[in-house]
Specification:
Order of helices and strands of chain A: HEEHEEEEEEH
Strand order of the largest sheet of chain A: 2-1-6-5
Oligomer: homodimer
Number of strands of chain A: 8
Largest sheet of chain A: 4 strands, mixed
Chain lengths: 149, 149
């Protein structure tokens, strides 16, 4: 099965209808935020093109499109930390996705943490915003999992 | 005060350092997911350019960049449903933001719902994915709030 997506309809159809007509941007991409199905905490934000979204739906695991590497990115293919899809949601204008996932393994982030969002923005004394760690210690050793420092 | 952002440093500086060096894409934008500070549920996903991020930090309320209207978008300026910033998080490579917000008013979505993510993707009988409402009824009347049907 190779699911196709509905064409973009009227504003009312897009916002209130039953057809899934995702909007890809000028680069052919749509943003997808993965959140943990148990804790509901955001894990990571990445992008999909139409084909990676199709693969995600078929496989039942998150398959992104890597903007930096310009290639399909089956999350967890290297680390074993796959994301099993529990639910996919879209928003009113269908130009964003939320993946509610069961995160397999110790965490989503390649730095060794459960979530990629491990720092908050803070005001520094000179007025330039800085970052502060939120206390999420590493849950795994990235060198051991990815085989490099 | 007009906060500037740090230049993009090394991979280690970006991932593990204290400098806030957000990465804007080729259109000058960064994705920002707003989540409710109390329920932790995702509310909406929109984009910011550097100036809207600066304004957000200065104002303490979410100011996005509307891709469709190509203008600054102080969320709630029309509806009163502003988003007070509780915390801003960034991810490992600093190319995405989470806004933890106090959502003022009845909801974040212009369709009259608390969250924009009110539909999930489901498999339809012909193999083409469809959408199903998740049961989030409208929490306000958009016509009354925005002054148009």
């Amino acid at each position: 099965m190779n699911p196709a997506f509905a064409p973009r309809g009227s504003k009312a159809e897009i916002e209130e209808g039953p057809a899934f007509a995702p909007k890809f941007d000028t680069d052919g991409l749509i943003a997808a935020m993965a959140i943990d199905s148990v804790s509901r905490e955001p894990l990571m934000l990445a992008y999909m093109n139409a084909e990676s979204l199709r693969r995600t739906l078929e496989l039942g695991e998150a398959v992104y499109w890597s903007r930096s590497r310009q290639e399909f990115w089956h999350k967890g293919a290297t680390s074993g930390h796959v994301q099993k899809i529990v639910e996919i949601r879209t928003d009113c204008d269908q130009d964003a996705l939320i993946l509610v996932v069961e995160q397999v393994g110790a965490g989503a982030c390649h730095t060794g943490r459960g979530s990629c969002f491990y720092r908050r923005v803070v005001k520094a004394t000179n007025g330039t915003p800085g970052l502060e760690f939120t206390g999420g210690d590493r849950t795994f050793d990235p060198a051991a999992v990815y085989g490099k420092a």
